[in-house]
Amino acid sequence: MTISLAYASLLTLVYLLLSFNVSRQRRRCLVSLGDGDQPPLRAAMRAHGNFAEYVPLALLLLALDEAAGVSAPWLHAVGAMLLAGRILHPFGIAMPAPNPPRVLGILLTWLALLLAALLGLMRVFA
């Protein structure tokens, strides 16, 4: 399962960067718990939280697809969309509306989830 491992590892690095950003914003805003009604901290927290909400299911589907024998190009398509989406999304959260990176990030994430689910269903019902 080297393909899903590669994307899980890359996404972990993104997660660590998002975690570091939350800590950095907490120090800047002098807030220990919650968001202290500080927009930069709130944005960092939501970027981190949104990542934590979407990525585990996507990685699980990617790993299960790989274990079920889905071909490497399809796995890379899912992984690349997920990685690109999760990198774009926090940049969009940090900017005022309209924020195209946020929209493109979530659309890529949703597309990766949809594709991973459909590939899995195709393996199950093939």
Explain this structure.
- This protein is mainly alpha-helical and 126 residues long.
- 84% of the residues lie in helices and 0% in strands.
- Helix 2 packs parallel to helix 4 (100-125).
- The chain is elongated, with a radius of gyration of 16 Å.
- The mean pLDDT is 96.
Tally of alpha and pi helices = 4
Gross geometry: elongated
- SSE string: HHHH
Q: Output the radius of gyration.
A: 16 Å
Fold blueprint:
Blueprint: H1 2-29, H2 39-67, H3 72-94, H4 100-125
Summarize the structure.
By secondary structure, the chain is an all-alpha fold. It has helices at residues 2-29, 39-67, 72-94, 100-125.
List keywords for this structure.
126 residues, mainly alpha, elongated
